[in-house]
Design a protein that fits this description.
With 184 residues, the protein is mainly alpha-helical. It contains six helices and no strands. Helix 2 (31-51) runs parallel beside helix 4, helix 3 packs antiparallel against helix 4 (87-107) and helix 5 (122-150) packs antiparallel against helix 6 (163-183).
Length: 184
């Protein structure tokens, strides 16, 4: 991705940490956590790899096509999973955005692909609006949960089973997606 190297490395760290936590969530006692954690770990690690500054590692064109194929397969899997749970529709948008960014980087890896001097492409702008809205919505949902969990009470859950931590991971990936789309 394009942009300042320091911001890119922070994004790499954020996405990798999120991916690692999502891998740990795959061991959760809560079935819904386990069901979504794998796809979220893939997104976190995929975003971390894509955010590595191009000055450090400039992937060859075929690598972007591999990313597109991996996230295309994830999108197809998500279509199947979305039949049972609407939350998976967000995963579909995320996987599709990763395919879009990968294809964009494969077609013009050294330039701001899709920008013909006329501003932000329509699909990029639409995805930016979606993920910005998702970040605001997730943040609004997270605040009351964080206050409630700080107050104690209720059943004691392991740190892998905490729904507010899963929501915080989704929030951080949404922020990461906004940052990646801005630098596209």
């Amino acid at each position: 991705m394009h942009g300042p190297a320091q911001a890119a490395w922070l994004l790499v760290a954020l996405c990798a940490a999120t991916g690692a936590y999502c891998l740990l969530r795959m061991r959760s006692r809560i079935e819904e956590q386990r069901r979504t954690a794998g796809g979220e770990a893939l997104m976190g690690f995929g975003m971390a790899v894509m955010a590595v500054p191009a000055a450090v590692v400039a992937p060859p064109r075929w690598a972007w096509l591999v990313y597109a194929a991996v996230f295309g397969a994830a999108a197809l899997h998500t279509v199947w999973a979305a039949r049972a749970n609407r939350h998976h529709l967000h995963h579909l948008v995320g996987a599709s955005a990763m395919v879009y960014m990968s294809v964009t980087m494969a077609t013009a890896p050294g330039a701001h692909a899709g920008h013909g001097g006329t501003g932000v492409p329509l699909l990029t702008g639409t995805l930016l609006l979606y993920f910005a809205g998702y970040v605001l919505w997730s943040g609004a949902r997270l605040a009351p949960r964080a206050v409630a969990s700080a107050g104690g009470g209720g059943a004691v859950l392991g740190w892998v089973d905490r729904p507010e931590l899963a929501l915080a991971c989704r929030l951080s990936m949404g922020i990461g997606m906004v940052a990646m789309l801005l630098t596209l």
